[in-house]
Amino acid sequence: MDLLRTTIHSTFNSKSRFPLWLLPPLLLIDAVFCTTIILKVPYTEIDWKAYMEQVSQYRAGERDYVMIKGRTGPLVYPAGHVYIYNYLYGVTRGGVDVGLAQWIFMGVYLVTVGVVGLCYREARAPPYLLPFLILSKRLHSIYMLRLFNDPFSILLLFLAVFVWQKKLWTLGSLAYSLSVGVKMNTLLALPAVGGLYLLALGRDKALRQAGIMLQLQLLLATPFLTEFPMSYLNRAFEFTRQFFFQWTVNWRFVGEEVFLSKGFSLGLLGLHACLLLFFLVTRWSKPSDRSFPTRNPQVCPHHRSWCERNRHALRSQPALPVLLMACLGYPLPSLAQWVWAWVGYGALGCTGVGVERIP
């Protein structure tokens, strides 16, 4: 009876970490799902061959992003994407062994679920949320049947969230910058990351972390920046790029003409900015009940107690603002539907990872 009461209490109580032994059975069940999908569901070719064509040009010595193209168009992802698929090109014999690639993506998927589970645990999320992590049909499809680059970017993003929860800020900066270096969609979380750093570390240390992120981006892109810098910047971080109407999910009801119009895009961008401001004022600075600090806590002698309380409060809930940005950014018309790979985890994270109580 005591064991039953303890189990029920731990299942629905969000004030303590759930036991680690809950994750291996979850991953084992999901591994069975993934294996069944790979063996029984036909693979769908979308971008894999294009990625392989682009990587083959990189391997041949091409460093001009404008000249690197595949059957679906030019290379439009940062250097981290190139390095990952360059490795996959090698182990899959030039992309011919798609089956092996699917098994690799299955491994990436299971590691990501495990990391997300650890984030939930650190945030004192109730264990009943865990089964929902493995029930998404689309997530399984994106990883095992599409072989997109989102899985690598999202794995790095959640690794960053996890180490932020452990107060390892520099490791978090490196992981987050690597995530952006694979696909720039995770830049949507940058306002929340910046707010988190400012509130938890102060201005000067936050700027140092930003410098670390920038240096890593420059290091990743060195082979391209040294020869064709503008070509790389314009292609890998093309903020003016607009997707075709056929790829949208959320805004299909508005029609193609409205979707492609400049007014519609600017309107959504303005709405997005307003949402950022709203959460900045009403949510992200709430634990301290103060505005963002302008100095480091160490050089704020008159407000030392507030700075310490502020840092403690924000360090205890880094996951919520970062994952909330995933949900805020998803409706933007400039994003393809595959962003669901991180919104799927982030949407649940807003109710799960963000439930940690602030002392």
Automatic annotation (TrEMBL):
List where the protein spans the membrane: 20-39, 100-120, 141-164, 184-202, 259-281
Query: What topology does the record note for this protein and the membrane?
Result: Multi-pass membrane protein
Q: State where the protein is found.
A: Endoplasmic reticulum membrane
Q: What is its EC number?
A: 2.4.1.258
Instruction: Work out whether the entry's keyword set contains Transmembrane.
Output: yes
Homology family: Belongs to the glycosyltransferase ALG3 family.
- Protein name in the entry: Dol-P-Man:Man(5)GlcNAc(2)-PP-Dol alpha-1,3-mannosyltransferase
- Print the organism lineage: Eukaryota, Fungi, Dikarya, Ascomycota, Pezizomycotina
